[in-house]
Design brief:
With about 110 residues, the protein is mostly beta strands. The protein has one domain (about 15-105): Alpha-D-Glucose-1,6-Bisphosphate, Chain A, domain 4 (2-Layer Sandwich). About 10% of the residues lie in helices and about 45% in strands. It has a three-stranded antiparallel sheet, with helices on one face. It has a three-stranded antiparallel sheet with strand order 2-3-4. Strand 8 and strand 9 form a beta hairpin. It is globular. The N and C termini lie close together (about 10 Å).
C-alpha cells in the first residue's frame, strides 16, 4: 500500500477481521449498505452496479460527498476519489488474508 505522505492530511486505520477474505470483501463493495455498518454515514446511494468511472453519493454527519469509483472488480475492494470538506480525497481499502482472518487496511 502506497500513501502520499506529503498530502496535507493522511489517515490510516487497520483491523483484523476473523472472517475469510471473500466474506469481508462483500461489506465495502455493497456501497448502498455502508450506513448499516458505519454510524457516521447517514446514507449512501448508488443506482447501478458499481464499476470504475461511476459516480455515487453518500452523506456523513458533516458533509455530502459525490466521489468517483477509481477501482472496482470482482476481486478487489472499491477505491474512490473526490472532494471532502473542499479538499481532494482518495480512499482505498486493502484486504490481506492472514492466519487469523483478514487484515483490512484503509
Amino acid at each position: 500500500m502506497t500513501i502520499n505522505q506529503k498530502a496535507p492530511v493522511v489517515q490510516t486505520k487497520e483491523i483484523i477481521n476473523n472472517a475469510e477474505r471473500a466474506k469481508v470483501l462483500e461489506v465495502p463493495t455493497e456501497i448502498k449498505n455502508w450506513s448499516n455498518w458505519n454510524a457516521k454515514i447517514k446514507y449512501s446511494n448508488i443506482k447501478v452496479e458499481p464499476k470504475a468511472g461511476l459516480h455515487f453519493t453518500w452523506k456523513t454527519i458533516e458533509s455530502k460527498i459525490k466521489p468517483e469509483i477509481h477501482t472496482f472488480n470482482q476481486n478487489s475492494v472499491p477505491g474512490w476519489k473526490g472532494k471532502s470538506f473542499g479538499a481532494k480525497a482518495i480512499h482505498n481499502w486493502y484486504l490481506k488474508s492472514t492466519e487469523n482472518g483478514t487484515r483490512v487496511s484503509v
